[in-house]
Structure formats: structure tokens, C-alpha cells
Amino acid sequence: MEFSQHSANISSSSSPLSSPPVPFWWQPSQQAHFNGFWFPGSDNLRRTLKVVDSFKPQSRDVILASFPKTGTTWLKSLLYSITHSSSLDSLNHNHPHLLVPSLELLVFATNPAGPAAPSDETGGTRIFNTHIPYQVLSGNLNSSDCKVVYVTRNPKDTVISLFHYVKKSKTFEEAPWTVEEAADQFCKGVVPYGPYYEHVLGYRKESLENPQKVFFVTYEELKGDPIAHVKRLAEFLGCPVGEEAAEEIVRRCSFGELSNAAVNKSGDMFTWLGLPNNSFFRKGEVGDYANFLSPETIRRIDDLTVDKFHKAGFMYGI
Ligand code: A3P
Q1: Overall pTM > 0.85
Q2: What is the rounded average pLDDT of the residues 239-267?
Q3: How far is the CA of 294 from the centre of ligand 1 (A)?
Q4: Mutate to test the pocket of ligand 1, among 67, 69, 257 (most ligand atoms within 8 A of CB)
């Protein structure tokens, strides 16, 4: 498969915003373009293509798909808890990103042969996550009866969360750009796994056409009524939980509990990115964008949201 790679010197942050999109988001300061989407570097894209070429989901697999910073870590904990009775102990001792490994960042990065076979211990259920767009991964996902859970989040909070997350990377040079520049790149679609809108719409369309296969939920819906959504998720996965069990899962996976667990407070995740474990827990709120984005940028993102989501019948994101 062919892909192109664009490099940029991240210290030259003085580039005018009107210049052609320059991918600044990540070290090593480059992103690779494939099938209409941007991937954070050619190594990442190679691993992504390995997943596309080799990953054969089993019928009891659960694939958590998301655009970065939309609630992946939260959903990992919830899905793991719903499907594993011993989840409390596991969550105390393991970062959610290790309990539910990323196909492209961990599984195929550490073992080119792919994941271990399902084990009887968990009734044959394996849970993976991916940021790979549906438009790129659909062949794999539809090759078995595996279930897909997709979480999304409003675009303004997503870009703010991503901006802070990238800034926390120890390999990322000190604040090379502003939040407004980040939002500008986001709007241009030049963002890891972006464009955001096409990413969301790809999975949403499939969830509408095939609701038994793809469960689509928003971060805001989960925040609004987490217990009801945990019960819906459990039902979808074929392992229903009662009110009390749902309450306990929600409590154990809450932002307060997870962010204060010792295992999530220290150490690094994905050493090649130098990301601290705690960088997956910042504020966990809805609407934090209002503290960072100018009224003009809010209007620009809202206009884009109307154009991309509302015109496609998805009345979400403003
Ligand atoms: P903020 O940066 O807005 O705080 P991802 O897991 O996809 O990388 O998304 C990270 C975002 O989800 C961060 O948002 C993080 O704080 C928030 N988050 C992590 N765990 C959460 C939880 N248990 N409940 C709610 N939000 C959570």
C-alpha cells in the first residue's frame, strides 16, 4: 500500500496560518497520509497497515474504536469491567491501556504475528482498541461477528483535550504552538487519525446500518447517565448487568477513582512517545473548551460541525 509522509520542523512554529497545512502535532514532527486520513508518523502507519493486512477478529472479540481524546480510557475500563468479573483487582494493578491494548500501538507493535488466541478464562472474549478509521478497517471488522463499540466527543472538547495531551509528551518540544494554531490544524483535518468529522461519520453510518454490530455512544451521553449506558453496553455485549452491578462499575471507572489509582498516577505509557500514565486523565469534563478557545474559533468549529455533522443528519457537537 502506498502512503506519503510530510515532515515539518516543529521549532518553526512561526509559520503563518494561511500556509498549507503543516502537521505539527507529534514528535517526530511528521504525519503520514493514507486513504484520506492522517496518521501520526510513518511507523504508526506501517503498524496500521500491518493491522489491516493481518488482523482477523474472532467472533467474540470486542473492538473499541475512537478518535483520540474522546473517552477511550474511560470506555476501556467500562468494557473491561463489564466483561471481566475480577475487574476490580485488575483495574487496581493495571493501566486501562494495558488491560485493553491498542491494535496499532501495542498489539502489532510488540508482536508482528498479532494477538494471542482467545482464552477460556474470559469466555473467549478479547477486547482491543483502535483509532484506525472505519474507512480503513471495515474489511477486518466485517470479516467476523465481532462487536464494535465507538465513542465520540464534541469536537471542541476533543481538540482541547488533544492539545493538552500532546503538550504533556516528554519528547514534544516546549509549547511550540498555541491552542488556536492547534484548532486551525484540527479544522483543516490535519490531526492524528483525522479528519475528525470523517472518522466519526464512518463509524456512525455503520452503527445506523448495523446496530447489532456497532454500538455508537457519545462522551456527553455517558456523562449524563452513565448507569443507563453501562446497562445498554452490557446488553449489547451479551452480558447484561443489573442496577447494582452497573452502579459499581460506574463508580469504579469514574474519573476520580481512575485518576487517583496509584497505577495510573506514575510511570510512562508508550515509551517511544514519552507519555506519562497520568496524561490520560486531565479534567474529564464537558465544555472545558470555553476556557481556551476564542469566540471566533468556537464559531469556526461550530460552522464546520453544522456543515459536516448536521447536514449529514447528525445533530451533534455544538
Ligand atoms: P480531558 O482532557 O478533557 O480531561 P482518551 O481516553 O480518548 O485519550 O480521552 C482522554 C479524555 O478523557 C481526557 O479528557 C480525560 O481526562 C478523560 N477521561 C479519562 N478517564 C475518564 C473517566 N473515567 N471519566 C471521564 N473522563 C475521563
Answers
A1: yes
A2: 95
A3: 22
A4: 69
